[in-house]
Amino acid sequence: AASAPVGLGRNSGHDRPMTDHPRIPLAGVIGHPIAHSRSPALHNYWLKRYGIKGHYIPIDISPADLPELLRTLPRLGFVGLNVTIPHKEEILGLVDIVSDRAALIGAANTLIFRKDGKIHADNTDGTGFLANLRQHVPHWKPAAGPAVVLGAGGAARAVVAALIGAGVPEIRVANRTRPRADALRADFGAKVHVHEWVQAGTLLGDAVTVVNTTSLGMTGKPDLMLPLQRLNHAAVVNDLVYTPLK
Predict the structure, then answer these.
(1) Residues forming the active site
(2) Is the pTM above the cut of 0.70?
(3) Do β-strands 97-98 and 55-60 pair in parallel, antiparallel, or remain unpaired?
């Protein structure tokens, strides 16, 4: 049976005041936009499946309102958040503690609101990215040749770090705005090679791995115009957009 909403719990026979009831923990995912996210369906399923008290909700928040949101949510009972486009990089400047891997990547996808009032940022994107590939494409050999990464935002940074860790010899990055791609190369070193966005199609021929980390192709966004006929048929292609136009 569904539990009653917060503050509307039934009297269980005890006469203690309503304020004595333990607070139901809240969590969610922040982004802009966020309606496409499947995280609420995923996490709320597991909360119900294992009988864990709590609710997980989507929160659409603009970058300008992020600082106020982070101050407010812990007071409302939130214990943590996931972070998605476009906040993954900016969020690092708004927290108190940054994990080593989030610092290395330069972006965070997970926030923990600690009991001491501090906000802890972490990044699990790279771990999840590699686990997904190894589960579904067990024959994938990252060291066999170059990788092409489209995009240079927070998700791209996690993917590049993961690919370097997996032994990819060369990572070709193309982004619609060149400076962000140049910053990524400056942070991750000589294995990263930056190319102009208009050259993206020419990078595919000998690529062993191709990853789209941009929002192109997402519902409500422009399509990803890429000449996929140039792909090596043995290449492994991963699209981080899971609500595509087609």
Answers:
(1) 88
(2) yes
(3) unpaired
